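Handout, section 3.2

Students often ask what a structure token actually looks like in practice. Rather than define it abstractly, here is a full record for Cobalamin biosynthesis protein CobD. The first block is the sequence as you would receive it.
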Amino acid sequence: MTAFWPLLLACIPALAICLDRVAGEPPMRWHPVAWMGHALLWLGVRIAPPAASASSGADWPAFWRGAAAWLAGAGLFAGAAWGLQAWLLTQPAWLATLALALCLKTLLAWAMLHDEVLAVEAALQGGLPAGRARLARLVSRDTAQLTSGEVRESAIESLAENLNDSVIAPLLWFVLLGLPGAALYRFANTADAMWGYRAARELGGVARQWEWAGKWAARADDALSWLPARLTAALLWLAAGRLALRRGRALAALPEQARQTPSPNSGWPMAAVALLLGVRLGKPGSYTLNPAGRAPEPADLLRACALGSRAILGAALLGSFALMALILA
């Protein structure tokens, strides 16, 4: 059995993707990302001052509270993942492989994202209000005034950004650092989603000032997402096949377009999808990607989902080969 360990362990990324498609999301009470959210809520109300009493200048005490809370939470979840992985690796090879793939699957969310994006288009067919309401389940922005084209833009942007955050990045960190790496990344990404704001935002029923309390979380997510975001853009381009060849000139515009977003990372997968599909994406008053592109059409959400699925297939295969190479090195 020992001789088959490298081959079995190398199957974990691909097996996790298959489990994600077949099994879907676990119940919230057993979902590690939900546990992270509960922990971040508990910590967040203790580190961020109420907006009404927050100082207008630099708040270094809030910054250090946020940094300490982030490090404590990251250590807790990454440490638990390390302990679980260490124990599983003492079990029979087939059991360890299946269990680690199942654990990794809980840190991925492609099937849910894919289905929710397609559900936005299905809802739009029933009317713009229904499409806006369905989109509100995916994005944090106000959807009440969006046109049908803007609803589609937002859905495609969410798909592209979360393709990195919810799939490619956890897979990459699993290959590099095992289950602790994937858990660390998902904690960092969830912390950024809950704490990483420059303005006041409600948490625990109170509007709180996050500019300094959430600064560490935002910078940590930027650092951990830097490489995966660019890898996601590359995988999307490779997954496009002949379409990428027809859009060859657009590839040169990718770095410039990716820099248009406020985030140093999210622009890469979003710009890649915009350029490959030939559509315009953007957030009014903030950025526009591929401004010469056309407005998204109903078929574009399906095309974006298909492109993402092919990119994930490539990521799973690449991850398996890379994992085997690291194990055998």
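Discussion prompt for tutorial groups: The chain has a mean pLDDT of 93. How would you have guessed this from the sequence alone?
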